[in-house]
Amino acid sequence: MDIIFYHPTFDTQWWIEALRKAIPQARVRAWKSGDNDSADYALVWHPPVEMLAGRDLKAVFALGAGVDSILSKLQAHPEMLNPSVPLFRLEDTGMGEQMQEYAVSQVLHWFRRFDDYRIQQNSSHWQPLPEYHREDFTIGILGAGVLGSKVAQSPANLALSAALLESNP
């Protein structure tokens, strides 16, 4: 089994060693421009077109929740990947919790009017501002997938309402 790996920012050597340890029977290598040797599987994040094009792959595994970069490149370069090759994506590898934390921080930042108070602080002015009331607004979450659904749980913990917008392509 031959595995090629590409990620523009990960510690590639760490991944290669971890994959070799986890799958000792596999031949694992980092992909570099000009590498046209055969491979059975590709583990990738935002791969260049040339990495996947012309290979007889059994599957491609995206190292993240989204495969948009691959799909958009496929529209412009249909030769990049045979349509029969399965394309897998990660659903949640801890990203859901990170997204929850980020969403909560942004909602509270807005709800507690931190920007408005920062403006006052910068002008050495202090005036209490009218409070927002939870019942007066709903948080909109675009995307009802794994991450969006996880994020939608957070407002309820703060006694806030949320609405998920799901699109079906």
Mean pLDDT: 91
CATH level 4 superfamily of the largest domain: NAD(P)-binding Rossmann-like Domain
Shape: elongated
Given as residue ranges, the uncertain stretches (5+ residues, pLDDT < 50) are none
Task: Briefly note the structural class of the backbone.
Answer: alpha/beta
Q: Please give the number of β-strands.
A: 7
Biggest beta sheet attributes: 5 strands, parallel
What's the CATH architecture of the largest domain? 3-Layer(aba) Sandwich
Instruction: State the domain count.
Output: 2
Rg (CA only): 22 Å
- Gap from first CA to last CA: 35 Å
| Percent of residues in helices | 25-40%
GO molecular function: glyoxylate reductase (NADPH) activity
EC number: 1.1.1.79
InterPro entries: NAD(P)-bd_dom_sf
Protein name: Dehydrogenase
Give the arrangement of secondary structure elements.
Layout: E1 2-6, H1 12-22, E2 27-30, E3 41-44, H2 49-52, E4 59-62, H3 68-76, E5 87-88, H4 95-111, H5 114-122, E6 138-142, H6 146-157, E7 161-165
Parallel strand pairs: 1-2, 1-3, 3-4, 4-5, 6-7
Helix pairs in contact: 4-6
Enzyme class: oxidoreductase
InterPro entries: NAD(P)-bd_dom_sf
GO molecular function: glyoxylate reductase (NADPH) activity
Q: Top keywords for this entry?
A:
7 strands, alpha/beta, Rossmann fold, single chain, 2 domains, 17% strand, 6 helices, 169 residues, two-stranded parallel sheet
Short description:
With 169 residues, this protein is an alpha/beta fold. Helix content is 37%, strand content 17%.
Can you walk through the features of this model?
With 169 residues, this protein is of the alpha/beta class. The protein folds into 2 domains: 2-88, NAD(P)-binding Rossmann-like Domain (Rossmann fold, 3-Layer(aba) Sandwich); 95-165, 3-Layer(aba) Sandwich (Rossmann fold). It contains 6 helices and 7 strands; from the N terminus they run βαββαβαβααβαβ. The protein has helices at 12-22, 49-52, 68-76, 95-111, 114-122, 146-157, and strands at residues 2-6, 27-30, 41-44, 59-62, 87-88, 138-142, 161-165. The strands form 2 sheets. A 5-stranded parallel beta sheet has the order 2-1-3-4-5, covered by helices on one side. Strands 6-7 form a two-stranded parallel sheet. Helix 4 (95-111) packs across helix 6. The two termini are 35 Å apart. It comes from Escherichia coli. Its EC number is 1.1.1.79.
